[in-house]
Amino acid sequence: MDDLQRALLRADPRLSRFDPLPRIIVHDDFDEGMHGWSELIGNYEDTLDSMLPEYRDMRPAMLSSATMWDTGTAGSMEGTYALKLATRPRAGHLSANLKRVTWRARGPVRLEAYLAFKPEASELRLSETDVRAVGVLFDIQDEEYRWMPHLRYLNALDGEQVGRWQFKRRREALRDIGGSGKTRSHFHLAPTGWEDVPGGRQILCYNEIATKLNWHYLRVDLDLGARAITHLQCNDRVHRLDGVAPMMIPAMANLWCMFNVLFWVETDTDKRAFLFLDSVLLSGDWEDREA
Amino acid sequence: MRQSYTAVIERDVEWQGLVATEPYECGWASEAIFFVRKLASEGDVRGVGLRVQISPDGMHWCDEGTSLVLSTNEVDFCRVRHFGNWLRLQAHLPEGVSLRVLVALALKE
Question: Can you give the residue range of the structural domain that contains B37?
Answer without folding.
Answer: 4-108
